[in-house]
Each structure stands twice: as C-alpha cells, then as structure tokens.
Amino acid sequence: MKTESTDIAVSVSGLTRKFGNFVAVDNVSFDVRKGEIFGFIGPNGAGKSTTIRMLCGLLMPTSGEGRVAGYDISREQEKIKKQIGYMSQKFSLYADLTVEENINFYGGIYGLKASELKARGEWVIEMAGLTDHRRSLTGILSGGWKQRLALGCAILHEPPIIFLDEPTSGVDPISRRAFWDLIYEMSARGVTVFVTTHYMDEAEYCDRIALIYRGLVIALGTPQELKTERMSDEILDVRCENPHDAMDEIEELACVKDVALFGSGLHVVTPDASLAETEVASLLNEKGYGFDAIGRISPSLEDVFVSLIEEADSENDGGGTMREARDA
Amino acid sequence: MFGRLKHMFIKEFLQLLRDPRMRMITFAGPVIQMTVFAFALTTDVMNINTAVLDFDHTKSSREFVEYFTSSGYFEVTEYADSQSDIADILDYSRARLVINLPSGFEDDLLSGRTAKAQVLVDGTDSNTASIVFGYANRIVADYSRAKMVEFENASGSAGMVGAEGAPFEIVTRSWFNPNLESKYYFVPGLIAVMILVISMVMTSVAIVREKEIGTIEQVMVTPITRTEFILGKTVPFAIVGYIVMTLMLIVAMLVFGIRVNGSIVLLYLLTGIYLFGNLGLALLISVTARTQQQAVLTAFLVMMPCVLLSGFLFPVHNMPEIIQYAAFLNPMRWYLDILRGVIIKGVGAGDILCAIVAQTVLACSFVMLAVSRFRKTMA
C-alpha cells in the first residue's frame, strides 16, 4: 500500500463524465507511475481532453474517482493545482502580451519569488529559443515557438506532474521532434508526463499508452505489449501495382479481415497469414496486378489501433445502444 | 495573495492600455461626450421664434410686442397679416408663439377698459410649451403693472398701485441654481452616465473574453483563487473609472464653471462604491454570458433602465410607485443623489446617508453575487 502511494502519480478508477445524455468519458480506470511518459491516444472526440480536464481540476467527474499527486480530483483541486502543469489543446497564453509579460504573469500567479521568477523566466526563454523575441507579442510567434512558450509557462513552478493536451497539433515536424526532446528531458528528471495525442509516431515515444475510443479505454500497455499481445491478427505487407484497385478485390477474400492503404503498398489484416499470403498472391496473378513482394510484418501501432477500434465498433454495432446514446 | 493580485493588475493594465486607440476611446471618449452632451442637452428655452399679428397698429400694440422681445427670450421672426396665416405658421412650426392683437387694443387701454390680447403657444412639446407660457405670463403681468403705474401717475395718486394692484408679491429664488440653468442638473448626471457606460462595457467582456479565447483555462489550473481573479478583473477598471471621472470633473470646472461645493474626499469615496456596484453588475453579466456579443448586448439592455430610471432625465419621484421601488435597485439612482448633493449642494455625508447606505448594499450584493456565480471549474 505504501509503495503504491509513492510510486503512483495519477490514479483513476471508474472515472465517468456525462454531458447530458452524451457519455464523454465512460468508466475509465488506469494508473500512471511517477516519472513515466504516459500517452493517452485516441481519435478526436474520444474523450482525451475531458479526461485531462477532470485530472487538472477544471471539470468535475460525474462519477468515479481519481487522485493526482495523492489528492482527490473531486475535492482537492486547489491542492492538485500546485502540483501540476497543464498545457491546453488550444494555445492559451495572452496573444496581446509579450513573451516576457506572459512569463511574468504566470510566474507571478504561481507565486514564484522575484529571484526564482527571473531565473525560471530566463530558462523558459532559452528553452523556447525566444532570446531574440522576448519583447515580441506572443500572438505573432510561429506555432512551434508558441508551443514551447506555452510549455515553459506551464512548468515555471517546476511541477512534478505535467499534463499536455495535444501539445504538438498543428506544429511542423522539426518543432514536434524538438518538443519531444523536451518531454524526454523532463521525464529524465523524474517528472511525470501525461500527454494526449492522435499522432501514432508520438505514441511510440511513450513509456506506456492507453487507447481511448468513444469514452472507453480499449487498450493499455507499453507500445511493445500492444503490438505483440493485443493483436490476435497478423499483418501482410503487399507491394503491388494499382494498390487502390487491388484493395477492393483483396477485401473480398474470405481469409482477409481488412485491407488498408499504407504508403505505396497495402496492409492486409488476417487471422492466418500463411493462408492469406498464398491466396492474395494467386488473386493478384489472376487479375493481372504485378506485385513486388508479399510478406508478414510485425504490426505497427497504427495497425493495432485500427484493428482495436474496428473491433470496438463491431461490438458496439451489435449492441447498438451505446452509439445511439452518444449521437443523441 | 497580494503577489498574485499584483500580477493580475499588471496584466489587465497591459492588455487594456496597449492599444493606443483603446486608450483614446477609454479616456478621451467619455470626456468629449460629456462636454458635447452638456452643451446640447439643455432645457433652457431661449430665442423663441415669435410671430405677431397686429390689427391695432398703434404705439401701445408695438410697445406690448417690445416687452416680449426685450425680455431676451423671444425673437419676432414674422409678421402675419391674417388669422389664416396664424394656422399656417403653427402648422409649419415657423414660430412657437404667436401674439395676436385685435384692433382697439390701445383704445381699450386708454379708456380704462380691459384690453384683450391673445397669445398662442405651440403645445406639441409640452415641457417647452409650459416654459414659454410661463415667460409670456410674466411679461404680460409686467406690462400691465407698468401700465397701471403710468395711469396712476397721470391721475396723481402715485405709489398706491403697489398696494392696490398687488397686495403682496411673491419673490421666488431658486437655491443652488439661481438662474435655473440646466447645466447644473445635467453635468453631474452626464458624469454618472459616462462612468456607468465605461465601467459596464469594459468589464462585461472582461471574463467572457478569456472564456471565448480560451486563456481562462490556463489561468484556472493555477493556484489563483476566485476572489483574486475577480478582484484582478475589477480593480483595474475601477481605477480607469476614477481617472475618467477626474478628467470629467476638470472639464466640468473649466468649461462649465461647475465646482465641487462639498468634500472632494467624500465624492471620491462614494464614487468608488458606485464603481464597484457597476463593476459587480458587469461581472455578473460576464460570468453568466457565453460569448462577448451576448455580454455586450446584455450590458446595453441593463444600462438603458439604469440611465432612464435614475432621475438623470426624468425625476424619479414623478414615476409610478412600483417603478420608484424598482429604482431602489439602480446604483445610478443613488449616485445621482450623491453627485448632485456633493457637487451642487455641497452637502455632507449625513444629508445623503440613505443614498450612501443603499449604494453600499447594492455594490456589495452585486460583487458577492458575481463571485459566487464564478467557478474555477467549467460547465
């Protein structure tokens, strides 16, 4: 019991949030260990932001429990706020204040002393690469700069836990990479990072990930675990001519569950890879598609997610009620 | 606590005063408007266009008309020739007053009979009409008294007419405003209106703007308290309100010669309470509104009754009883009592105690209501 409370930064059980009839977060449970990078992955509208807002004390849960840094999310939000940094999905620094003014404001309301504020402010400006722009209005900065400045302002008070809600959406790949370097750095210093994203490559960077879909956590584990254990089907990589046309025909095969375009080729999902390999090959020959290669590959996270989401959809369509409740 | 508040204040002032155009609108706008309105809004009736229909054409009839023109209020702009002209003149509003002197006016006067003259007033604007009517009555009374003195002198019994014609005389004097100039009434009122407008419009968007842009979310995850946030959104606007009021008082003194007769300290103290009442009301709007547009529209709908039911244009005690009670909830109603009391009458706190207490209760209730409706959590 004691070890658990010191090892766990965020703990959630049965967390639910409804907006009228709409269940945005549905009975979600998970633990985040101290110092880990925990990814919350899911498509838009899956309930990622709603969950993160409940954890930050911005939104009251409808039911269920959660603890952040040992404090109850329904009753001790103000204590939680001293322990966390939060970066919302939308850029939410003041566009009509300069870089320095924003830093001073946030440092001030986090209660930093003047000397701390000066040191931390310099650190943020340097970290965000804004040395030459410290007196520029924040509104005119480019996406990557804004993102780093927002992160800097969220961690001015050096919180042990930080929540990042889609921190890299709308940012160029180089800035995204640089941003993840910062996340690694913080994690290395023992900071717990809870990050939501819908980029699959970013999911791979996380220590552990939870896949959330329509308010439900449908998978939880390390990227490696999800790729090897959660995937009962196998993946064939097919390189052929006119993959777009071939796709429809391959889908007709009885041994094929799903086909998706993947780069210049196709990924075929099948319960039996060796059977499917021969059948796909003969189909392509018969219909006159030239093909370079067919081979089994280990699934990527994207494959895993696509197949898990389709699994969830087919279950829901059978039950039917859940989707209707949400569309209402 | 004070550290966080200080940073809220700095931030609000930076945002408020960064844009030069905003600075102009905030500070120069109210002062210019007050000046223009104080000149334009006047109930003083001067230069009344007057038409004369004189069938008598005698020295006396001309003298009678001269009494009107020499009063300074009337200006003869037209001489009519017939009764039908009069209808035309009034229909087309060419004159607001018509003096109609029938033939035989002088004969009657000199032979000691009651001479008849007709004065027609355009009654479309009832307020102005009654003022014009009042002037005309006074002039006619002056004229007849003068005539009587003249006749008595002629008949040799001088000095008796005062006693006989008018056994006593009422000498009226209006206090605080001897010449009944409407600027003494309107300038304090305009100051109250301008403070209301500037504090309501700016503050009503203060919180909802942050909600709309999304910046509030980032602030709400900090340890800032509700009271700190609300105060941070109020005090800077109160300071702006004070600056605007000071500018307006200076203009009132330099341009209109209106000095604060009472205590300046008392005036500023009570203005602070008025400001907080308005700001509380505006914050209540800002906390409950979902969009800035909604907030501004609501603010305007709230300001209309605040101004009209304050006694700024129409005295509250002339209103239906139920409206008078409703006006108790209007901070401006009380502030006008205070402003007119302190600036024009020069009274002390004891004389306007009722207004002070009412205003304080309102301000506290509005601010507390706004704080209680504000949540650090969403939806």
Short overview:
The complex is a heterodimer of chains A (328) and B (379). Chain A has 328 residues and is of the alpha/beta class.
What would your notes on this structure say?
- The complex is a heterodimer of chains A (328) and B (379).
- Helices cover 42% and strands 27% of the residues of chain A.
- Chain A is α/β, with parallel strands linked by helices.
- A 6-stranded mixed beta sheet of chain A has the order 6-7-8-3-9-10, with helices on both faces.
- In chain A, helix 4 runs parallel beside helix 6 (143-154) and helix 5 (114-127) runs antiparallel to helix 6 (143-154).
- Chain B is mainly α.
- Chain B has 2 domains: 2-41 and 181-373, no CATH class; 48-165, abc type-2 transporter like domain (abc type-2 transporter like fold).
- Helices cover 66% and strands 6% of the residues of chain B.
- Chain B is built from 16 helices and 4 strands.
- In chain B, strands 2-1-3-4 form a 4-stranded mixed beta sheet, with helices on both faces.
- In chain B, helix 8 (183-204) packs parallel to helix 12.
- The two termini of chain B are 27 Å apart.
- The chains are: A alpha/beta (328), B mainly alpha (379).
- Chain A binds chain B through residues 19, 53, 56-60, 77-78, 81-82, 84-88, 90-97, 101, 104-111, 150, 153-154, and chain B through 3-4, 6-8, 10-11, 14-15, 18-19, 213-225, 228, 376-379.
